[in-house]
Amino acid sequence: MENVNFAMPKFRVSGNRIFTLLVFCFVFLNACSSGAQETKHPNVSGSFYPSSPKVLSEKIDSYLKDAIVPEINGKIIALISPHAGYAYSAAIASHGYKLIQGTDYNTVIVLAPSHYHNFIGISVWPKGKFNTPLGDIEVDSDFAGQLMKELDWARFVPEAFAKEHSLEVQLPFVQKVLPGAKIVPIVMGSPSLSYAEDLAAKLKEIIKSRKDVLVIASTDLSHFHPYHDAKVIDKKTMGYFEGIDCKGLWQAEMGGDAELCGIAPVMTVLSFAKDNDAKIKILKYANSGDVAGDFSRVVGYVSAVFYRGDNPKGDAMLTIEQRKTLLKIARESMENYVTTGKRKEFSVDDPQLTRHQGAFVTLNKSGLLRGCIGRIVSNSPLYEVVADMAIEAAIDDPRFPPVKAKELKDIEIDISVLSPIEEIKGTNQIEVGKHGIIIRRGFFQGLLLPQVATEYGWDRETFLKHTCLKAGLPEDAWKDKTTQISIFSAEVFSEKSIE
Questions:
Q1: Quick one: residue 298, left, alpha or beta (phi over 0 = left, psi -120 to 50 = alpha)?
Q2: Contact partners, residue 188, CB within 8 Å, separation at least 6
C-alpha cells in the first residue's frame, strides 16, 4: 500500500497570535462542551411521535383515557415501557403511565439501551434540559452528579444520545403525567449482568428512603418474527420479568430463549425491584401485528409496573381467585394421575399464574403429612409447577407409599408459592415465620418452609439447626463460613383456608 503523509502543512504564526488562537480555541471548545450539556434537542420528533405540541398532547391524552388498568395496592417504584413509534407502542406504554399520573414523583430515572453507539458502561446526561414539543424537562443534576461520582464506569458520552430514540420517546409521557418532575437520562452501553446489578445497588443506595423517585426501563421485546412465534418468545421473556429473575433473563438471552433490545435497562430494574422486595404486575402486552395487521414480521411490546406492598393485602402475590385456580389444578392433576396414570393438560392465560416461580405442594390426611414435594426455582409457569408437584407429592415422596384412589377424598392440599431465593451474609436477616431457609454445602442441601418453624414454635437458631439436619449436615453447620444460607418467603394457602 502506498505510504501517505498526514503531516500538517507548515506555516508561521507570531507569539501573540499563538496566544490569541489558544485562548479562542479554549473559549470556543468550552462553550461547545457546555452547550452540548445544557439542552438536548429531540432526535425523532415528527417521526416516532408528532412534532405538533397540540397533536402530541391530544394523542397522549387519548392513549391514557383508553388504557384500562388494575388497582395496585402499593407504591410503584419502577416501570417497563416500550419505545417504538407511538403508532405502534404508545397505547401499550400508556398503561404504566396512567398508573403514575398525577402522583408525587419528583425524579424520574430513565434507563434506555443504546441502538447506535457501542460503548461500555453507562452514559449519564449530567445537567441542563431535554426538549420535546411539549417544552423542556429539567435534568436532576444533583442525582446525576452523585451517580457519576460514585460509579467509575458512569460518564457522559455525547455520542450515546446523538441519535437515540429509546430514551426520548418516554419523555412526552413523563411530561404529561408528572409535570414538573426532573429526569436522570441514562443510556446503557454493552449489556452486562454485573453492571446491571451494580447500577441497581447504587440507585438504591442513592435513593435511600426517598419515595419520590421512579425508575423506567425502556425496551421492546422480540423483533421481526412471525406473529405466533413472537408471542411464544415474548411469553418466555416475560416469565423472567414476572419471576423478577435478573440472572435467569441474562442466561436466557445469551442462550436464545429470551429476546429484548433493552436487556441492560430491564436487568437493572429487575435487580432494583428484587433489592427493594418489590412485586411486578404485567399490565399490557401486544405486538405490532395487533396494531398494523402485518403478522409476518412483528415487534413485541409490554408495559409493567413494580411495586412495594404498603399493607398486608398489598403484600399478597395472588388473589383469592388465583389461589382457587391453583388448588383446583393441583386437585385435578393429582386425582387424574392417581386414577388413570395420565397427566392432565391445563390451559391458563393469567400472567400471575404463567410466570416462572417455584412452589411446593403438601398433602395432609387426617391432620398428618401424607406427602410434600416442590421446586425451589423454575423455568416453567407456576400453574404447571403446581400440577407437576401435586403428582410428585402423591406418588414420589420417598417417605410414603403412593396415594391410592380410595384415599383421595381424605387428602387436603396445601400450596406454598415461593418468592425469589436470596443468599444472605448474616443469619440476623432471617425472620422466623416469614422466611424459609435453604442450607447448602458441597453436594448437601436442605430446605424448610417458613410455616415449619411456626408450627413447631422454633426460634431462629433452632430453625437453622433443623435445616442443617434436613441437609444431612451437622446441626451447627450453619456457623461454618463455607455453608451457603439462602432465604425465601412463601405464600401458603390450602383448600380448607379458602372454602
A1: beta
A2: 111, 112, 113, 114, 122, 123, 195, 264, 265, 268
Do both 239 and 302 map to the same domain? yes
The C-alpha atoms of residue 475 and residue 462 are separated, in whole angstroms, by 9
Whether 17 is covered by a domain: the verdict is no
Q: Considering 417, 444, 469, which residue would you say is the last residue of a domain?
A: 417
Q: What's the CATH number where 438 sits?
A: 3.30.1490.150
198 and 150 part of one domain: yes
Nearest to 405 by CA among 325, 311, 338, 331: 338
pLDDT tens for the chain, 499 residues long, are: 333 332 333 333 344 443 333 333 333 333 333 334 589 999 999 999 999 999 999 999 999 999 998 888 789 999 999 999 999 999 999 999 999 999 989 999 999 999 999 999 999 999 999 999 999 999 999 999 999 999 999 999 999 999 999 999 999 999 999 999 999 999 999 999 999 999 999 999 999 889 999 999 999 999 999 999 999 999 999 999 988 999 999 999 999 989 999 999 999 999 999 988 899 999 999 999 998 888 999 999 999 999 986 433 334 578 888 999 999 999 999 999 999 999 999 999 888 898 888 999 999 998 899 999 999 878 889 999 999 999 999 999 999 999 999 999 999 999 999 988 888 888 988 988 889 999 999 999 999 988 888 888 899 999 999 999 999 999 999 999 999 999 988 888 888 766 5
pTM to 2 decimal places: 0.60
Given 381, 399, 417, which residue is the final one in a domain? 417
Chain-centroid distance, C-alpha 85 = 23
Are 408 and 451 part of one and the same domain?
A: no
Paired strand residues for 300: 287
